[in-house]
UniProtKB/TrEMBL annotation:
[4Fe-4S] cluster binds at C121, C125, C128. The keyword Cytoplasm applies. The active site is at E101, C345. Its EC number is 2.1.1.192. Keywords: 4Fe-4S, Cytoplasm, Disulfide bond, Iron, Iron-sulfur, Metal-binding, Methyltransferase, rRNA processing, S-adenosyl-L-methionine, Transferase, tRNA processing. It catalyses: adenosine(2503) in 23S rRNA + 2 reduced [2Fe-2S]-[ferredoxin] + 2 S-adenosyl-L-methionine = 2-methyladenosine(2503) in 23S rRNA + 5'-deoxyadenosine + L-methionine + 2 oxidized [2Fe-2S]-[ferredoxin] + S-adenosyl-L-homocysteine; adenosine(37) in tRNA + 2 reduced [2Fe-2S]-[ferredoxin] + 2 S-adenosyl-L-methionine = 2-methyladenosine(37) in tRNA + 5'-deoxyadenosine + L-methionine + 2 oxidized [2Fe-2S]-[ferredoxin] + S-adenosyl-L-homocysteine. It comes from Buchnera aphidicola (Aphis nerii). This is Dual-specificity RNA methyltransferase RlmN. One of its GO terms (cellular component) is cytoplasm. It comes from the Bacteria. Gene3D superfamilies: 1.10.150.530, Aldolase class I.
Length: 360
């Protein structure tokens, strides 16, 4: 038994929503509970939305008393809801003057929840509204998990079939908390989703991609957005630290250890007129990806206030896609969902008080 964990968490009351399934078990057995009690508590929280220990009647009275003395369950509530004409829903969580956003995207065959991992983002990608807001802090496990719990509750019987880390923030710069959330999503007493239904999107934090690969297996999506380093340097400052070649090498390493990515990595490519959308760029992209099992998702750029970019035309996006398809790549064009409520990719601005300069 890990006594360090026990001592540190028993010193002050802890929020059970911050615990991984393993830590939950250690916490409970340290109070003298049976091994299966943590599974029961997880079911109460993640499946029955019960946050009051006194109502968990299959848990012994003495353990319920100890839980009340040493812990609590504190969920961060949604404060606002906006529903798009296409059925997309955006929820806002207000956290001490800051706001983060969660988006639900229902489709015919699946329903995806897009969650945020940070308040703001430090990466400053030029074409992204979240990046322009600056960075405040990482979200806690509890704040991330609350987004899923709240959405599940709001949606009543409508199922969330997929979860994507594509909301505000760079999930791999909040690696430990994000891994704990993934453990809860994958756990059968947690949200019980299969690893193939979870996608983590990253702008390419190479050491964290390697660490992630040691810790957990989920679908990886990479925001590449350029076919060469000079374009990527221009629109994504992170490229100066981790360039395309080293990023694609780390993706290959990740794929070697992963069974979730059976169709390869998802390459995200935002279509910016006259920046990265030429015919040459399409051929160049096919060339740099030829050794990486991948599917390519072209994203029409969504505009936001004070930005100078222009989205590529539909014609150009189709031409670009066809070149990639002819080269053998499974290529899709992302549908613009929730644009009327600013819930589309890169439009999530929340409300961020920018404290830290840059944590790159
Ligand atoms: N930081 C992570 C997670 C964000 S996911 C990442 O970079 O992957 C959001 C996706 O939408 C990313 O691919 C991002 O580059 C893209 N995006 C950002 N701004 C956009 C915009 N205005 N229009 C379309 N896509 C955008």
């Amino acid at each position: 038994m890990n006594t360090n964990i026990n001592l540190s968490i028993l010193n002050s009351k802890i929020n059970l929503l911050n615990l991984s399934p393993k830590k939950m078990q250690l916490f409970l057995t340290s109070m003298g509970a049976k091994n299966f009690t943590s599974e029961q508590i997880m079911k109460w929280i993640y499946n029955y939305h019960c946050y009051d220990f006194n109502k968990m009647l299959n848990i012994s009275k003495i353990i319920r008393q100890k839980l009340n003395q040493n812990s609590y369950i504190n969920i961060s509530n949604f404060s606002e809801e906006k529903i798009s004409s296409d059925g997309t829903i955006k929820w806002i969580t207000s956290l001490k003057n800051q706001k983060v956003e969660t988006v639900y995207i229902p489709e015919e065959k699946r329903s995806t929840l897009c969650i945020s991992s940070q308040i703001g983002c430090s990466l400053k990608c030029d074409f992204c509204a979240t990046g322009k807001q600056g960075f405040n802090r990482n979200l806690t496990v509890s704040e991330i998990v609350s987004q899923i719990l709240q959405a599940k509750k709001k949606l009543k019987n409508k199922k969330i079939t997929n979860i994507v880390f594509m909301g505000m923030g760079e999930p791999l710069l909040n690696l430990n908390n994000v891994v704990t959330v993934l453990e809860i999503i994958l756990n059968k007493n947690g949200f019980g989703l299969s690893k193939r239904r979870i996608t983590l999107s990253t702008a390419g934090i190479i050491p964290a991609i390697d660490k992630l690969s040691q810790k957990i297996d989920v679908n990886l999506a990479v925001s590449l957005h350029a076919s060469n380093n000079s374009i990527r340097d221009l629109i994504m400052p992170i490229n100066k630290k981790y360039n395309i070649e080293s990023l694609l090498n780390s993706v290959s390493r990740y794929l070697k250890n992963s069974s979730a990515n059976h169709n390869g990595v998802t390459i995200e490519y935002v279509m910016l007129k006259n920046i990265n959308d030429s015919i040459e760029n399409a051929y160049e992209l096919a060339d740099i990806l030829k050794k990486i099992p991948s599917k390519i998702n072209l994203i029409p750029w969504n505009s936001f206030k004070n930005s100078n970019f222009i989205s590529s035309t539909t014609n150009r996006i189709n031409t670009f896609a066809n070149i990639l398809r002819n080269k053998g790549f499974n290529t899709t064009i992302r549908k613009n969902r929730g644009k009327d409520i600013n819930a589309a990719c890169g439009q999530l601005t929340g409300n961020v008080i920018n404290y830290s300069k840059n944590n790159l």
